[in-house]
Each structure stands twice: as C-alpha cells, then as structure tokens.
C-alpha cells in the first residue's frame, strides 16, 4: 500500500510517501522557523497560511523524488491533532480533497502516535511491549506501549512540556526560537558545576513531571548574572549546561522508574527533545546498566515530519481504518483514546 502522509500540526509542513512493502520512498519538509523567529514563537495564523503555500509543491516534490504519480497513491494520511486547529485544518482539507478527487481513502493520524512510531522507520525497530518517553514542544509523557493503539499513560508533565521549558529558558536569555537546539549547542561549552539546578519531583514517588520551576530557576540565575556584571556569553553557556543536565537527569530518573515498574527493559524516546544528544547518551548509559536498549529515530524524524504520519497512517489503513468525508481535527486529543489495531 502506497500512502501519502501530510503533517501540518504546528510550524513544519511535512510530506512523505511510505510503501508498506518497500518502506519510506521520499520525504520533504519545509520548516517555518525563519517566519516565526522574529516573534519568538509560533504565530498560528501565519503558520496556517504558510502550510497552504507549501503543501502542493511539497507533494509534487515527493512524487517526483519517488518516481511516482498521483494515480499510484493508494491512500492519504494526515495529522488530525493535537496541534494548532488552523494549521491542522490545512493538512486535513488537503488530504480529504485529494482523497476524494483520487477516489482513495484518507485516515486522520494522532500526532503523538506518529512521533511514537517514528523509530519504526529505522533499521532496528523496537518490538512491543516497551516504555515510551514522548518529549516534544507540547507533550512530556511516559507511556506503556503494548501495540499500536495500546497505550497506558504512566506519567506526564503537570505544567510545561520539556521542549517548552527549553524554548522558554532560551528565550529569557535572548536566544532564538526554537530553544532546544540553541541550548544544546551552548551547553557543549558550559562550565560543569558552576550552577546547580534542581531535579524537580524526583524526590517523591510517581512518574509525573514538572518543568516550569526549572525555567524560573534559570530566570533567577540569569538575572543574578546580569546584576553582578558577569560575562553574559559565558553565563548563557553555563546556564544552558546546568539546565540541560537537570532536564536530562530528571527524565532519566523517571524513565528508569517507569521501566522498573513495568518490568520492561526496552525504551523508545520520541518527539523533538529526543534529538538531544545528552539525553540519548544518558539514557543509553542507564539502559546499558539494565541490559536493555533505547530506540530513537534519526534526528530529522525526531522533530515534526511527514514520514511518521505516513507510517502511522499506513498501519491504521492496513487495519481497515479510514475517515468519512467530514473534515475533523482536534486541538486536544488524548492518545489513550485511540483504538487498538
Ligand atoms: O516534536 P516537535 O518537533 O514538535 C512538537 O510536536 O512540539 O518538538 C519541538 C520541540 C521544541 O520545543 C524544540 O526546542 C525541541 O523540540 N528540540 C530540542 C532539540 N531539538 C528540538 N530540545 C532539546 N534538544 C534538541 N536537540
Ligand atoms: Zn511534534
């Protein structure tokens, strides 16, 4: 089955062609980062309008790259939520219109299920069951995964998502959006041990997270550095390192707890923050000690992309799922409500 996948939940237009027999044939992405950077975050209306502009050229591009034609496509998959409603509607309308015109089915995909399944596109995919750490700009969740659509939420952030904390901490130090990659880059030149950030909610049982306090801690530290006339370039690097270490260690502690509680030693990390090198290294060390394994997607499939939507959609289409003609999207959509296949 050849599936055309469309991702438009936020600030990336992603398009990909996935073949159930041959794997991923082509994928293309247009990132709107430059468009939103001057505003320090995503402007929803600008995002929607830009998705409209980019979608059809990107579809033509992936068809050309794969040497395929519209008539070869068996089905469409699009992100139906969670995300920005206007942005989601662009992908949903486009997918539904093309599916209607081409006489093929279309399926709406849950964005976080897309992230969760992205490591399946790699050479050594994880096998069920496993624990998944989903860490993106909007979500931080620990989930027990027994199969596609068999999700048990073990814990989640009570306030900011991990990626959101990276973005806000970067912003308060005058860094560009998105903050995750900026902080990760600066942290490489940080002075170890200069600042000690807390590891929120690790001193009590449970698998929930809270990251908003870390951002406040970063703000106070940054203000102290400014007030005392410190070298601000070095202060940025040192805060970036201390902040990143705090997030990474907190996530690692909770992953270890979730694995022990579930009796599993297979961990999948997915979502934008799973591209973070320090996080991967920490988790790999921890899983090594547990004689287990950590799985993640190549960096460009950690952040938003069309390939994960084409893959996840394909699995659901193969199981017989598809939508009716209504164009429906959901800004909020709990992943546990998805049907098992
Ligand atoms: O999954 P994603 O592309 O979009 C959402 O679904 O939210 O995740 C974007 C988030 C942003 O907060 C970004 O700062 C963060 O992922 N991110 C990173 C890294 N690359 C992206 N955070 C830490 N380290 C990175 N290398
Ligand atoms: Zn995402």
Lateral arrangement of strands in the main beta sheet? 3-2-1-4-5
Q: Summarize the amount of helix as a percent range.
A: 40-55%
- Look at the structure and give the mean pLDDT: 98
**Distance between the terminal alpha carbons, to the nearest Å?**
17 Å
Largest sheet: 5 strands, mixed
Strand content: 15-25%
Parts with pLDDT < 50 across at least 5 consecutive residues: none
Overall strand count: 10
Q: Would you list the SSEs in sequence order as H and E? A: EEEHHEHEHEEEHHHHEHEH
Structural class call reads: alpha/beta
Radius of gyration, taken over Cα atoms and rounded to an integer in Å: 20 Å
Which compounds are bound in this model? 5'-O-[(R)-(carboxyoxy)(hydroxy)phosphoryl]adenosine, zinc ion
Query: Which overall shape is indicated by the principal axes computed on the Cα atoms?
Result: globular
Q: How many DSSP H or I helices?
A: 10
